[in-house]
Fold:
Amino acid sequence: MKITRRRLMATGTAALAASALPRMAWTQTTLSMGDTEITTLSDGTLTLPAEFIFGPMPQDELAGVLAPLGVDPGAPLTPPCNLTLLRRGDVLALFDAGSGLSFQPTAGMLPDALAAAGIDPFDVTHVIFTHGHPDHLWGMLDDFDEPYFANAEHMMGGVEFDYWMDDATVGSIGEERAAFAVGAKRRLEVVADAMTRFGDGDEVLPGVVAALTPGHTPGHMGFVIGEGADAVMVLGDAIGNDHVAFARPGWVSGSDQDPERAAATRLAMFDRITADEMAVIGFHLGGGGIGRVAAEGEGYRFVPEA
Ligand SMILES: [Zn+2]
Structure:
């Protein structure tokens, strides 16, 4: 095991966190599939202006779609952030790394969630990114800018990695997300030489297949774990909330970098998920993030497992 400065600090705080926090608040939902156990861990919540998601949507129809779901179209949104942990034999794989402490004050809680679940970050074997946004990536480094999961293999889709490593991205991404580009490049540079890059359809772990799901970001990846009706799909942000993304998946969303492409991806994903009757795990879905998709009206409804 590689000993870093972070480890010396982590030991004390982890013990404190584990004793001070109720376990269920952090370890959210667990799904068992044969020899594979999948658990979601909370990294906390974000606070987003309603405009960030709802801005480009048909405003005359929006309130009517959101009302039955209990969502106020004018109030800030506070989506949960669910990381997916996969355990199988010697594999302890984490999908995304959370926000870390420099994005939003209500996020970056993953270290507490890991401690409450009795997991040492040094035992994580793989960190597999869906995409390079701050709430998924920035938690990969510790306070000393060293990899927080020091013994893990870091893995990202090749298109996504190249996009965030490109010096031109900060100039092309738009003012609203320029800080995302700077923050992603700075962090990815730390592990760039060791980063494992994968493509659409690649098996990132045995029985875990990457699915290119672009639009939210240029190289966003989902992952299908298992097969057929026993499969579960890690959605990342390609289906980014449990309200309007389900009820009107074809609507463009302000949270997607290429909204038209993201809407087409979302519709295709729902087709695949419902045809195969897969379970889903969504980074920003409620009820712990693991659930099923039910057809409803013009769209779908998220049915949490918990
Ligand atoms: Zn995102």
Remarks:
- The radius of gyration is 18 Å.
- The chain has a mean pLDDT of 91.
- Residues 5-304 form a domain with the Metallo-beta-lactamase; Chain A fold (CATH 3.60.15.10).
